[in-house]
Design a protein that fits this description.
Layout: E1 7-9, E2 12-14, E3 18-22, H1 34-48, E4 52-58, E5 67-76, E6 79-90, E7 93-99, H2 101-104, E8 111-112, E9 115-116, H3 120-137, E10 144-148, H4 154-164, E11 172-177, E12 185-187, E13 207-208, E14 211-213, H5 214-221, E15 224-227, H6 230-235, H7 246-251, E16 256-258, H8 286-299, E17 309-313, H9 322-334, E18 338-342, H10 347-359, E19 364-367, H11 372-381, E20 384-387, H12 397-404, E21 407-411, H13 414-419, E22 433-435, H14 440-454, H15 457-468, H16 474-490
Parallel strand pairs: 3-4, 3-10, 4-7, 10-11, 11-15, 15-16, 17-18, 17-20, 18-19, 20-21, 21-22
Antiparallel strand pairs: 1-2, 5-6, 6-7, 8-9, 12-14, 13-14
């Protein structure tokens, strides 16, 4: 189906769809990671394409939820909880926030440093059921409900139950996996909290090695499945990266598609980014980027502005490959590079990085915290962004790096494999460097190759320019989702 085609349904031509997105976090209202960036930018792109877009998300503490519309009771197991529905509009999108002080008025979204909140099952059972009740209350029947990650996994299940009773009968569901490693698993004894008939708790349903698995609910009961890159869509059907759900995904392979994320190019623009002022720049003004490099090196306590600056920005966790960064740091210094690390995470990596900074003062700099403004300056000031993730469903860091003129060195996995073109394989189109084997040796060798290329100033400028010329906006990815929605509705 061509993008320009108009789909026909019983009531006549459909020029624009009614699309509801359901997510546990959405930027700029709430955020713990990349999920919020996606669910904040995709609705805006869909609305710009002419569709009627609505987003449902929890009214966490600090969210400016807008005007209260209604209050209604939601069943959570054997008890009822009161939901407050609020509405506000932004960027052509209608946002509904589901409030309940007991569930959502907390310091953090999902848990604290001590672990996940013990009532997360109840919290998201409540949210998922409240979304569907809100649609019934509003007398609003969307064409598509697009759910994101395990926190929304029960929406497709309850929607099927509702459909069987004659409600939302024409609505179809899409479920997106942002990271299969996070599944929403709870003890099997807690299944009654879901409010579903016991027939759903079986190997063909929500049961997973004796537990309740909310991600599996979304995988089994949604009409279509997506994930955030074509390579990751293939990887999660393997035992290595399927996290026990590879068989489920293989069974649904014909209903699974990978669509690479975009970035909001209005939010991520080195020419307008206020955190870079007065040194804003674009591909035609590299001098400002050099000034930013000097400033960010001072922030990290590093010497030698002529040295290449390598950066790691993100969670200090095994998934993100921080152990490879620690293992290769000495080699980076030997090769004449400086290293700046920004992020927070597992204490073992905090200690390793602090030891490296002590061994290599003025060459290894640390900021063991989350700091969005500093992250932007580091994207802008770095020459190379390190993304050695063990697995990476899509990755937004490399897309931001392209935009800000930093060249990624990345593991050939997931969305990194789909977006980074290896200069070592095709110098004419390359925009970064990839390594295959997940080892410190392979990572170090690829860094050495990148630094050798960095020494050729003219060639390096071409690599940077290719990255900065990419179109990683959400418009292309939104078009893919629209085509998916249309194909799904054409089968109704």
């Amino acid at each position: 189906m061509m993008k320009s085609e108009v789909l026909c349904r019983d009531e006549g031509p459909l020029a624009a769809m009614k699309i509801v997105l359901v997510a546990s976090e959405v930027a700029p209202f709430s955020k713990t990671g990349g999920l919020a960036d996606v669910t904040g930018a995709l609705p805006k792109a869909l609305a710009r394409a002419g569709h009627e877009v609505t987003v449902f998300s929890p009214a966490y503490r600090g969210v400016k939820a807008g005007r209260a519309l209604a209050r209604f009771e939601v069943r959570v197991g054997e008890r009822s909880e009161m939901a407050q529905l609020c509405r506000r509009k932004k960027d052509g999108v209608t946002f509904y926030f589901v409030g309940n002080a007991g569930f959502f008025d907390r310091d953090c979204l999902y848990g604290t440093a001590q672990g996940d909140y013990p009532d997360n099952l109840e919290r998201f059972v409540f949210f998922d059921r409240a979304v569907l009740q809100a649609l019934v209350y509003l007398k609003y029947e969307p064409d598509v409900i697009h759910c994101h990650d395990w926190q929304t996994g029960l929406v497709p299940v309850h929607q099927r139950e509702l459909r069987a009773q004659g409600g939302l009968s024409r609505t179809r569901t899409v479920f997106t996996i942002h990271n299969l490693g996070y599944q929403g698993r709870f003890p099997g004894a807690s299944f009654p909290v879901t409010g579903l008939p016991s027939s759903y708790f079986g190997v063909e349903g929500l049961e997973f090695y004796g537990d309740v698995n909310l991600l599996k609910a979304g995988l089994v009961y949604s009409d279509r499945l997506t994930t955030v890159s074509p390579t990751y869509a293939r990887e999660i059907q393997t035992a290595e990266l399927g996290f026990g759900l590879d068989g489920v995904l293989q069974n649904r392979a014909r209903h699974l598609v990978g669509i690479v994320n975009g970035i909001d190019t209005e939010v991520w623009d080195p020419m307008t980014d206020k955190t870079l002022s007065p040194d804003n720049y674009n591909r035609e003004s590299p001098d400002a980027k050099r000034r930013l490099k000097a400033k960010v090196m001072r922030e990290f306590g590093l010497d030698g502005t002529n040295r290449p600056l390598l950066a790691f920005i993100g969670r200090l966790s095994g998934q993100k490959g921080i152990e490879l960064v620690c293992g290769a740091a000495e080699r980076m210094v030997e090769l004449g590079a400086n290293l700046a690390v920004l992020g927070t995470g597992e204490e073992v990596y905090h200690r390793q990085l602090q030891e490296l900074a002590g061994r290599f003062p003025r060459r290894v700099g640390l900021a063991l915290k989350f700091d969005d403004r500093l992250a932007r300056r580091l994207y802008a000031g770095s020459d190379i962004l390190l993304m050695p993730s063990r697995y990476e469903p899509c990755g937004l860091g490399q897309l931001i790096a392209f935009r800000y003129g930093s060249v990624p060195v990345a593991h050939r996995t997931g969305g990194l494999a789909d977006t980074v073109a290896d200069c070592s394989e095709d110098a004419g189109v390359g925009n970064g460097f990839l390594f295959q084997d997940y080892t410190t040796a392979a990572f170090s060798a690829t860094i050495a190759t990148a630094l050798q290329e960095f020494g050729d100033a003219t060639g390096w400028k071409r690599i940077v320019a290719r990255g900065m010329s990419r179109d990683d906006s959400w418009s292309a990815s939104a078009d893919r989702y629209v085509m998916l929605y249309q194909e799904l509705l054409s089968e109704s």
